[in-house]
Amino acid sequence: MRKLSVLEKHGFNGLNRWPGNTQLESAEAVSDYFMHGYAPPEPLITKNTKITAFGSCFAGNVSRYLLKKGYQVNAHSWDHNQSDLIRIDEIMVHTPALLAQFEWAFNNKPLGSVFIGSAEEKAQTYHSMEACKQIIKETDFFIITLGLTEAWYDKESEQYLWKFVPNRRLDPTRFESRFVSFSENLENLRRIYNLIKSNVPCAKVLFTLSPIPLLGSYHGKSVVAANTASKATLRAVLHEFLSQKEHADALYFPSYELVNDYIESPWKEDNRHITPDTVETIMSIFDEYYLSANE
User: Fold this and answer.
1) Can you give the pTM of this predicted structure?
2) Mean pLDDT (whole number) for 36-61
3) How far is residue 188's CA from residue 208's CA, in Å, rounded to a whole number?
């Protein structure tokens, strides 16, 4: 008779067990411990797919890699420091700002005026506003990276800022930094996803969580704890969102988990940005699961 393992004896048969260092060094580590349950049945991106990556650093890394491989990528050369749409500043990669873009593109909802004193802030874009809107509407594959939960809120207009404004220019009696809650983030994701699928029914939507830590926090507590709260909230939101049947065809790529639990020494000296080798490792995994050489 076959001897039962300790896990089987305790009724844990079928348990997806946490990997040790030996397991992480195996050839099957990525498929068994990171892509398991998240891998698409077949590569979804062909050379004819029109791809747009929303976000900051990770969006830029994805876009440059895909362009180098000969895929059709929108906004691939945009600098997030010079753009308020699609490729956006890292401190603006929160769900209220992302939702504002999609409501503007698909529902023609005004982005809302941002006044600093008596001067109105205009959107920075690489093309006309209409051209940017058309890019979003004609996308086949959306890659949406979530980054943080801290966002500036305009109490007078009752809206979150959708564009970057240095906080030194913000009137503290009018603007306040808020932690966007679990429920609000979840609702924003639902609205983003439904907007995309209602207007581009055949589009694929891939979500990721940026591994890049917060640049800082305005909430008067440890920035390390603030970063943990931010990332944990967003990952829990993504888990809840992806678990719901109406979002069954939404996708998730575990860039956050790969950086934090798989790749050795992923960080540059600033302890915030990932090394070129880390980018290459992440993108080679993305390539294996998502890219097809077919037209």
Assistant:
1) 0.92
2) 93
3) 15
